[in-house]
Specification:
Blueprint lengths: L12 E5 L3 E2 L4 E8 L3 E9 L3 E11 L9 H4 L7 E4 L7 E9 L8 E8 L10 E5 L1 H7 L13 E3 L34 H10 L14 H10 L5 E4 H6 L9 E7 L2 E3 H12 L3 E7 L4 E6 L4 E3 L5 H4 L25 H4 L2 E8 L12 E3 L17 E2 L8 E5 L2 E4 L2 E4 L10 E9 L3 E2 L2 E2 L14 H10 L4 H5 L3 E11 L1 E5 L13 H14 L3
Parallel strand pairs: 2-8, 9-11, 9-12, 12-14, 13-15, 14-27
Antiparallel strand pairs: 1-3, 3-6, 4-5, 4-7, 7-8, 10-16, 15-16, 17-20, 18-19, 18-23, 21-22, 23-26, 24-25, 26-27
Length: 516
């Protein structure tokens, strides 16, 4: 069954930068294709406010051919215009809006972005937010393919589909949240389908992109007095020193795809006393490799054991399977404390469709809950459904009413479990597809439960699946030199919109980990 198309607009202007991360003083070059003879560009820093920093009109444009494999190898469009990043531009996320001249309507505008790193790292902020650009690229189907249509590689050298940088909101504020949080279960996510079709937004942009989580976090953080510096995923690969000036690295939302060197950078940072806060879920789940000087990202995913050429070689540790794969030998919970393999989905398809979306507090005396008034068994996130979409957990047992990690799955022995919530891994068997069928490109694909059981335990027997099917979202903290906090859920940032308890926990984490 082909992937359902929601974004069918034929855009008059599209483009992409030569890189996604710059320091002031470096030149950014943009590659564009325009069906109109001229177009304009507007660049704005996006935070609590949208601050326009550059505009240019009358740029000469030409329509460029799109290679058949552009999604995998890039567009190879020639340079259209360039600019040197001014020294006064603050570190941040910069939206690039291209507008074709002479026409109106949504087809006249498209968006790209880049991140500006600090000119004086650590001088203005002790916190660096690492934007999940690998996940954006993995889901972006511009050019006809992505990692979710079976391609083993995707290029950064191409435009983004609609929805990854800017999303419109309905009159009631709905802006394409993937998790279904309506009062009645909606396993087919009909409201989301309607939104995608009405606004001509790409389907996969509900699983990745700036507006979903990071924008919410940044708006709240800046409004509450936090100054953030910025980097992107690949900065952790090519600039291993990028975290050194900071006290705290932050990951937000859906930070799913990590390379070996990215983990080396973060692990070294923590080993030397740096702190990390994962306000994210499904974090560090798949290993990727960068190729072609970082312009291409490789991940064979579910078929890595069959198709990834590094299997059976001296480079097998770089296999682009899940990080928990024994052939890699480096489960993600060594870095994050948790794993999606022991969590799963909440309010997604037929996975816990009536969940209240809350964490049940286990250790209310922990400093993370200071000032909240929460007690043992209380609900955190009521009304905002912070435990939703994809969540991470660990293997644990209950002792005297408190959860304790067993360590059997590689979870650090000193991990403190602060709160938990039920979750479920999607199963896809004949007559029982628990995923979101109308949004699936292949309803016959292997389920996450069957795949994970096979990778971890050798086969998808009923016994092995029973060991993983019903997991938990876990909020946790552990120390390995520095401290690693993990919110254990993609949708934590939705609580920052209006939930004072989620806001207070976030403030406690940011303040403490950025000062010690």
């Amino acid at each position: 069954m082909p992937l359902r198309e929601f974004n069918t607009l034929s855009l008059a202007i599209e483009g992409y930068p030569d890189r996604l991360s710059f320091r002031p003083g470096e030149e950014a070059t943009f590659h564009c294709s325009s069906r109109r003879p001229t177009f304009s560009v507007e660049i704005a820093r996006i935070g609590v406010n949208r601050e326009v920093v550059h505009s240019r009109a009358g740029i000469a444009g030409s329509e460029r051919p799109v290679p058949a494999d552009a999604y995998a190898t890039g567009c190879s469009w020639p340079a259209t215009f360039s600019l040197v990043i001014p020294e006064e531009w603050r570190s941040g996320f910069y939206e690039v809006a291209f507008r074709a001249d002479g026409i109106d309507g949504p087809q006249a505008v498209s968006h790209s972005f880049f991140v500006v790193r600090s000119l004086h790292p650590g001088g203005d902020s002790a916190i660096v937010l690492v934007v999940a650009t690998n996940t954006y690229n993995a889901y972006n189907k511009w050019g006809g393919g992505c990692l979710y249509t079976g391609s083993p590689q995707v290029s950064f050298q191409r435009p983004l589909e609609r929805g990854y940088v800017v999303k419109p909101a309905d009159r009631d504020g709905f802006d394409g949240r993937l998790a279904n949080v309506t009062p009645d279960p909606d396993p087919d996510h009909r409201r989301l389908q309607s939104y995608l079709a009405e606004h001509q937004v790409a389907m996969w942009s509900s699983s990745a992109g700036w507006p979903n989580w990071e924008l919410r976090f940044v708006r709240w953080a800046e409004a509450n007095g936090y100054t953030l510096d910025y980097a992107i995923n690949s900065d952790l690969e090519v600039r291993p020193e990028v975290l050194d000036p900071y006290r705290l690295m932050v990951s937000v939302g859906h930070d799913e795809y990590w390379s070996w060197r990215m983990r080396d950078t973060v692990d070294s940072f923590v080993d030397h006393g740096g702190n990390v806060a994962f306000f994210s879920g499904n974090a560090v789940y798949w290993q990727v490799r960068y190729e072609d000087d970082g312009r291409t990202m490789v991940c064979h995913k579910y078929v890595a054991h069959k198709t990834d050429p590094v299997r059976g070689t001296a480079r097998q540790h770089l296999l682009t399977s899940i990080w928990s794969d024994p052939l890699i030998g480096r489960p993600e919970n060594r870095t994050t404390g948790l794993s999606f393999c022991r969590g799963g989905y909440v309010r997604f398809g037929r996975c816990v469709p009536r969940s209240t979306g809350v964490y049940t507090v286990c250790r209310p005396d922990h400093w993370a809950f200071e000032g909240t008034g929460l007690r043992y068994g209380d609900a955190l996130g009521l009304g905002s459904h912070i435990v939703a979409y994809e969540v991470d957990g660990c293997d644990f047992v209950m002792e005297d009413g408190l959860p304790r990690p067993t360590g059997r799955d590689g979870t650090p022995a000193d991990l403190d479990i602060l709160a938990t919530a039920p979750a479920h891994l999607v199963s896809n068997m004949p007559g029982n597809n628990e995923s979101v069928v109308p949004l699936s490109f292949d309803p016959d694909a292997i389920g996450d439960l069957e795949f994970t059981a096979t990778i971890l335990f050798g086969d998808a027997s009923m016994q092995n699946k029973a060991r993983l099917a019903n997991g938990h979202a876990v909020m946790s903290l552990f120390r390995r030199g520095g401290l690693v906090f993990n919110a254990g859920t993609t949708d934590w940032a939705y609580g920052l919109d209006r939930d004072p308890l989620v806001q207070r926990v976030t403030r406690n984490v940011l303040t403490r980990l950025s000062r010690q």
